[in-house]
C-alpha cells in the first residue's frame, strides 16, 4: 500500500512539472513583452550597445521570476489535480480507504521548498538586480541620441553646432548644400558656414570629421572696442572640421554609487533604516516634550469672561483700556498698553509654538510613511513567495472539485483568482503606504483568507466534517 501511495505521489508531482514549466515560461515571455513595449522608446535611436540592452533585460527578469512562479503554481495545481479527479483516481483512493490528504502532502512540501527558495531570491538577488537595472535606466536616459542628420531639417544634437542639409547620400555619407551655424563656445568664434558639398568620416565613437568642399565662412570676431564685432569672410575649396561626439557615447556608472530605495535593499538593510527612523521620531517627540507651552483653559474658573488670544482681533485690543486675563502677571499692570504688550507677546509665542508643532508633526508623518513603505517591502518579500503555498492549499481542492484537467479551464479559473489576488495586493500596499492599515494586514490579508478557504475545502474533501452539521448540532 505504501509503495502504491508513493508511486501516486511521484506521478502527481510529475504531472505538476510540465504545466508549471510551460506556464512559467509563457508568463515570463508575456511579462518580457510588456517590459519591452513600455520601454522600447527609451532604447531606440540612442546607439546603445547590444550587450547593455541584453544586461538591462536580464536584470529585469528577476522581478518577473518572483511574479511568474506563484501564478504558474496555481495553473499547474489546477491542471494536475483536475486531471487526477477527472480520471476517477480520487474515487479509487477513497474506495481503498486512503485519505486524499496523503496525495496533497508531497505537493505541499514541494511548494514550501519553492517558497523558501523564492523568498531567498527575493531578498538577496532581486534587490541587486533592481539596483543594476535602475542604474542602467538612468545611464540610458542621460545618453543623448546618436548623430542623425535628416534632409531639410535643422539638427542641433551636437553641442555648439546647428546643421541644415538639403540632400544626403546615405551610401557614400555625402552631404549637399550644407549650412552650418557655429555657436561661440569652447574658445570658438561665432561662425556661419555654407558649402556645396561635404563628406562625413568617422574617427571612432568619440569623434566625426566633416570635410567641406567649395564654400564660404563668415566668422564674427570680437573687436577691441566694447560691443563691436568684426566679420571675417573666407572662401575655401576644402575645409576640415572635427566634431566631438563624446557626449553621445554611452557612459556607464557604478550602481553602488547610487542611492538605494526600498526596491533595491534587502530586509536587513531596510530593518536598520526602519530602526533609525523610529529613533528619529522619538527624538522629535522628546524635543517637543521639553519645549511644551501651556495654552489657556477653555473656561476660566473665576466665573468672569477670560481672554483668549486666538479669538481677539487687533482692533479690539486697541479700543479697550484694561484687560482681565487668566495670565496673573498681566493683571498686575494697570496700564492697557503694558497689558497689550504682554498679550501680543503671548500670541507671538503661541503662533511660533504652533509652527514648530506643525513642523514636527509633518516630520513625524513623513517618517511614518517611509517606515510603512519599508515594512511593506519587507512583508512583500515573503507574502508573494508564500503565495506558492497558498495556491496549493486553494488550487488542489478546487482542481479536484472541478474534475477538469485541461489548460483552458485551469487558465480561466487562474485568471479570476490571480486578478483578485493582485488587485488586493496592490490596494493593500497603497493603503499601508498611506497609513490607513498596517503593512502586515495589507500584505497578508488575502494570503490568510485564501489559505483558510483552501484548508476548509481540503477538510471538506478528506473528512466528513461539515460546517452545516456543526450548526445543526447546536440547534
If helices are DSSP runs of H or I spanning 4 or more residues, what is the number of helices? Answer: 11
The first-to-last residue Cα distance is 42 Å
- Helical fraction equals 55-70%
Largest sheet, strands/sense/barrel: 5 strands, antiparallel
Key features?
60% helix, alpha+beta, single chain, 13% strand, 11 helices, 475 residues, five-stranded antiparallel sheet
Spell out the blueprint of helices and strands.
Elements: H1 2-43, H2 50-86, H3 89-95, H4 101-142, E1 161-169, E2 174-182, E3 190-202, E4 207-222, E5 229-244, H5 267-290, H6 314-318, H7 328-331, H8 336-402, H9 407-433, H10 439-462, H11 467-474
Helix pairs in contact: 1-2, 1-4, 2-4, 2-8, 2-9, 4-8, 5-8, 8-9, 8-10, 9-10
Tell me what you see in this structure.
The chain is built from eleven helices and five strands. With 475 residues, the chain is of the alpha+beta class. Among the domains are: 2-143 and 376-474, no CATH class; 161-248, no CATH class. A five-stranded antiparallel β-sheet has the order 1-2-3-4-5, with no helix packed on it. Helix 2 crosses helix 8. The radius of gyration is 37 Å and the shape is flat.
What's this model, at a glance?
This protein is of the alpha+beta class.
